[in-house]
Amino acid sequence: KIQITGFIHPKHSTDNIGFLKDRIKLVKCDILDKHSIFNKINNTDYDYVFHLAAFSSPTQSFQNPKITLENNIIGQLNLLEALVKIKSKAKILIIGSSDEYGEVNKSNLPLNELVPLSPQSPYAVSKVAQDLLGYQFYLHHKLQIVRLRPFNHIGPRQAAIFVVPAFASQIAKLEKIGGGDINVGNLQTWRDFTDVRDIVKGYFLALDKGKIGEVYNIGSGKLYKISDILNQLLSFSKVKINIKKDKKLFRISDNNRIYCDYSKFQKQTGWKPKIPIKKTLFDTIEYERQLLIN
């Protein structure tokens, strides 16, 4: 039997995980309050720690660099110091990002873990810091840390500040009124998309079978054009929807074409993505439709 404890910020809603609330224990905790973290994890005996708490929007990090850096770097530092203090033997997963790589030469594609890091947003800088901070705590404090650099993952329940749920949410709302305009940003970019449900399985395998101290890329290894993603979502709808470009939705820094070499992770853990992109997109728009009903 597996017991799961989830830490959640005191001011954050649990609506997104309502369907899980009876199956997990939720603890209110602010990762910027190091005393609170220590008090919450003291006298516990976790086997696995998945550190997912972070400010997660590259675009919004330009408007909120201080909040991004504080939450992502200092928040993780507080957690790791608390784990050192209680002499934790848990395996710990540190989540980086494909954004750590920044703009890369085409000769380096697909990206493996040896490609130099070149972060181009406050978010990406924070993720590099989290990545290397995790490595430092592995080296000097002997914490049992594994690091992952996930590429873009999508699916039901993702916040609408990200491109795919932003499209899906607008389409679902337009269906309610019989059609209209969908506002979009740059449709000419490409992304390595993976279903979040595949990614989460990868998170578990990283600690179950990953090598302590190592870093791994995780993604689909496939490129999808944003315009194709939008067209697939639109194909699930029967109302007339017009595409309207909005310059305000263009990202300040947009790595045009990067995709993942996940062979190191696959060799170590046996992981590979299984859910087709069409199912991911259909499930995403269905989730947005259900939100409007409920």
Automatic annotation (TrEMBL):
Which species is the source of this protein? Candidatus Curtissbacteria bacterium RBG_13_35_7
The superkingdom of the source organism is Bacteria
Record-given protein name: NAD(P)-binding domain-containing protein
Which residues are in the NAD(P)-binding domain?
19-281
Species lineage, top-down? Bacteria, Candidatus Curtissiibacteriota
Pfam families found in the cross-reference section:
GDP_Man_Dehyd
